[in-house]
């Protein structure tokens, strides 16, 4: 492993640990977080499986990525498809039950709580076809929220707990309810800022 790669991996680990400290007021310290936070274990495993998924010249890499992703799912309760694209400083707090589909794209500094689904509508087939949500930078996805289909949630938005989102959400919005409705974000939602 080259020095630049080691620095890149260590830098990413440090960023993820810092995101955990920012996203969880109960975070006690980096060592404890690295050992006990299933959300960190899931994203670190995903970063490896995603590289395997993209390594088309390596025979069996996609199979290996899927197997490793399933092992991570069994260990953490968090299912992230190796094809999903996830940005920097991503944090899953109390991650049990999180599901992120193959064509999902998640921006930087996103905070996700337990039970969140970034899923498809079903029936969408074909290679290269986007079936899952795109989540912008600095978005917070509340516990139990479901983002369904090839929708986009704009940057700096908050999706409330147990909200079901099936349509695009403009940047800077708060979305609440079943078949969520968007309104402009006032900045006083009491949600942690990453």
Automatic annotation (TrEMBL):
One of its GO terms (molecular function) is serine O-acetyltransferase activity. It catalyses: L-serine + acetyl-CoA = O-acetyl-L-serine + CoA. InterPro entries: Hexapep (IPR001451), Hexapep_transf_CS (IPR018357), LbH_SAT (IPR045304), Ser_AcTrfase_N_sf (IPR042122), Ser_O-AcTrfase (IPR005881), Serine_acetyltransferase (IPR053376), Trimer_LpxA-like_sf (IPR011004). Keywords: Acyltransferase, Amino-acid biosynthesis, Cysteine biosynthesis, Repeat, Transferase. This is Serine acetyltransferase. Its EC number is 2.3.1.30. It holds the Pfam family Hexapep. Pathway: Amino-acid biosynthesis; L-cysteine biosynthesis; L-cysteine from L-serine: step 1/2. Gene3D superfamilies: Hexapeptide repeat proteins, serine acetyltransferase, domain 1. CDD domains: LbH_SAT (cd03354). It comes from Curtobacterium citri. Belongs to the transferase hexapeptide repeat family.
């Amino acid at each position: 492993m080259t020095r630049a790669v080691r620095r890149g991996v260590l830098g990413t680990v440090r960023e993820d640990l810092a995101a955990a400290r920012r996203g969880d007021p109960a975070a006690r310290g980096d060592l404890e977080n690295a050992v006990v936070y299933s959300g960190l274990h899931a994203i670190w495993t995903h970063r490896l499986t995603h590289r395997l998924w993209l390594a088309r010249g390596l025979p069996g890499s996609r199979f290996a990525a899927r197997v490793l992703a399933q092992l991570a799912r069994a260990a953490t309760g968090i299912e992230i498809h190796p094809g999903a694209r996830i940005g920097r400083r991503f944090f899953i707090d109390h991650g049990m039950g999180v599901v992120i589909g193959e064509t999902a794209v998640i921006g930087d500094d996103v905070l996700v709580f337990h039970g969140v689904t970034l899923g498809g509508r079903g029936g969408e087939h074909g290679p290269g076809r986007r079936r899952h949500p795109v989540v912008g930078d600095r978005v917070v996805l509340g516990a139990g929220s479901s983002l369904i289909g090839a929708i986009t949630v704009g940057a700096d938005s908050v999706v409330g707990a147990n909200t079901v989102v099936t349509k695009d959400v403009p940047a800077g919005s708060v979305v609440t309810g079943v078949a969520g409705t968007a309104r402009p974000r006032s900045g006083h939602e009491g949600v942690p800022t990453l």
